[in-house]
Amino acid sequence: MARVSQVRRTSRCVEAATTPCLVHVRDSKRVAGPRLTLAPGAWADFLTYVSQS
Predict the structure, then answer these.
(1) 12 is in which domain, residue-wise?
(2) Domain count, the chain
(3) CA 40, CA 53: separation in Å to the nearest integer?
(4) Predicted confidence (pLDDT) per residue in 17-49, tens digit
(5) Contact partners, residue 32, CB within 8 Å, separation at least 6
């Protein structure tokens, strides 16, 4: 499982842990909070969307 986190000046950070079949996403400041589990294609679509914003 690969884990990636990104820190930006806005302090709105998420962590993403990837496996071949799923991507798990959570708020890096609320590690016990809710999590999202996405298919890799849905995660790729989301990243494309937010990079265009």
Answers:
(1) 2-51
(2) 1
(3) 20
(4) 999 999 999 988 888 889 999 999 999 998 899
(5) none
